[in-house]
Design a protein that fits this description.
Elements: H1 12-22, E1 23-25, E2 33-35, H2 51-63, E3 68-73, H3 81-93, E4 97-102, H4 109-112, H5 114-128, H6 140-148
Parallel strand pairs: 3-4
Antiparallel strand pairs: 1-2
Helix pairs in contact: 2-3
InterPro entries: AB_hydrolase_fold (IPR029058)
């Protein structure tokens, strides 16, 4: 089976994970598989398609000062100028925005370099999603973020 390589990313482990997420066994034919899709991508929208929409979304995130993190692979060509413009707005107007560049990271650096990725994500999550205080109580940070996000 042939997969499209991103940025000449030939890591077979990476492809195995992508296959497991996107291939399903047929219920009708026991010896067949079909391409399904990673359901986590169901609501992803191309922010580059309409600049006004991308800016409006970024400004809403900034106005609420919502924690937001973007991790980018430095060796990847998947982030274009439109995306960098949105990242720029978030950097300027949101004190809770973080962006990190994995210098030699390709498109799937989160699969190829899980330790480097985790070293960035875990502190971010601990800072903005602290564990509950018990008895269903929430920390001040957590409840403040929920109210700003209207959750």
């Amino acid at each position: 089976m042939r997969l499209t390589n991103y940025d000449d990313d030939d890591d077979n482990d990476c492809h195995q994970i992508a296959l497991e997420r996107n291939i399903s066994k047929s219920r009708k034919f026991a010896d067949r598989y079909y391409f399904s899709r990673d359901t986590r991508l169901k609501y992803i929208m191309d922010q580059q398609s309409v600049e006004a929409l991308g800016k409006a979304m970024a400004m809403r995130i900034c106005a609420a000062k919502l924690p937001y993190m973007v991790l980018r692979g430095g060796a990847s060509s998947n982030i274009g100028q439109d995306s960098l413009k949105i990242i720029g707005w978030l950097i300027e107007d949101n004190p809770n925005f973080e962006t990190h560049l994995i210098a030699d990271g390709l498109h799937h650096f989160h699969l190829n370099q899980p330790e480097a990725t985790a070293n960035l994500i875990i502190p971010f999550l601990k800072r903005y999603r602290p564990q509950s205080l018990g008895d269903g109580a929430q920390s001040d940070v957590s409840s403040e973020l929920r109210s700003k996000a209207k959750l």
